[in-house]
Amino acid sequence: MALPDFTLSAGPVTVSERTRAALARPILYHYDPEFRAGFVRTQSKVAEIFRTKNDIILMQGEAIVGLEGALRSLITPGMHVLNLVQGVFGKGTGYWIKDFGAELHEIEVGYDDAVSPAQVEEYLDAHPEIEMVCLVASETPSGTVTDVAAIGPMCSDRGILTYIDTVSGVLGMPWETDEWGLDLCVAGAQKCLGGPAGVAMISVSPRAWEKIYANPAAPRDSYLSLLDWKEKWLGEGRFPYTPSVTDMFGLESALDQALEEGVDAVVARHRSAAEVTRAGARAMGLELWAVRDEIASACVTSIRMPDGLDNAVVRDHARAVYGVMLSHGQGAGNLVRLSHMGPTAGGLHSIVGLAALGRTFADLGAPVDIGGGLEAALDVLSAQSA
Ligand SMILES: *Cc1c(COP(=O)(O)O)cnc(C)c1O
After folding, report:
1. Is 172 in the pocket of ligand 1 (CB under 6 A)?
2. Ligand 1 pocket residue status of 68, Cβ below 6 Å
């Protein structure tokens, strides 16, 4: 099959030419002074986009490696953990929490909705035994966000640790690790940053380290170990294992581009692209998945399937017939996702995605107002640039 003309998926995303050029750099030995210096520089650039003074750990592997390693490091048997569930990643975190031996508490809402700060506050008031709150900042499979700006400080004020999957959150929404008192955050390079898949970026607060050091079950001498990275690399300048040299070149380049554009500007670009996309989808006559615009993510717009259509069939038709790779619901529901993530947040990308999606619906027997939708989206885009 030919390559797609446009990849408008929810990660891995299309990367810029500059990032691709960085990924083509010669391989260096990992103890080459040039590589080591680059690794240290990259850590501080990650700290800048996270807005933190906390330690940054760069684990080599999909963001999942960081998420699992961090959770295993923090959880002690019998510990009471409150998990917020509004989508498939949150649900999965709960399985881990139980599996690692903690007492699982959950607040769960529909996957088109978001857990509210008031629900969390009420639960914490009634359950003083909770030691940690786990949440997913941006539920990519359903395109909803959690109010981390409210829930983070609420936990921090009560001395409750926070473990946050912000894999598609950082750069796709305002993010203040230190100001919000967030203890452990994990982001991925292949989402809003527009970097390579295969690197997990993790911030760890001093409070989280205390908890990890006090935990005899925290992985050591393991691919999942945060402590190995802290002690061997941050402490002694020895890598626990050979980093993925190429991915690190790509990551630093993507970070440079984000920092040159400005963190706030990148976040605003995602928000603007989401506004264009939502306006277009609505004017086409499509129904958005998120129950309220305030909880709709800025990096991906989820759209409910018209009656009788299957999300994977829609995704495959847009790819096969129009050369546009969209994302399906990935188990979150019968929805299709039009992403505006990383380099595809902005410009005409959303217009292309809307055109492919609208015509796909029409081809499959669910007619929509394609022209009206594109015009509405272009109106918003034009007004934004005015
Ligand atoms: C992408 C993503 C992950 C990482 O999952 P993969 O299946 O490895 O891509 C984790 N959490 C969220 C919210 C994500 O968007």
Report:
1. no
2. no
Rounded to a whole number of angstroms, the CA Rg of the chain reads 21
DSSP code string of 185-217: EEEETTSTT---SSEEEEEE-HHHHHHHHT-TT
pLDDT along the chain (386 residues), means of 10: 94 97 98 98 98 98 97 97 98 98 98 98 98 98 98 98 98 98 98 96 98 97 98 97 97 98 98 98 97 98 92 96 95 95 97 98 94 98 94
Any residues with CB less than 8 A from the CB of 150 and at least 6 apart, and which? 117
Give the position, in ligand 1's atom list, of the atom nearest the Cα of 63.
4
The pTM of this model reads 0.97
**Any atom of ligand 1 within 6 Å of the Cβ of 143:** no
Ligand 1 center to residue 54 CA distance, Å? Answer: 23
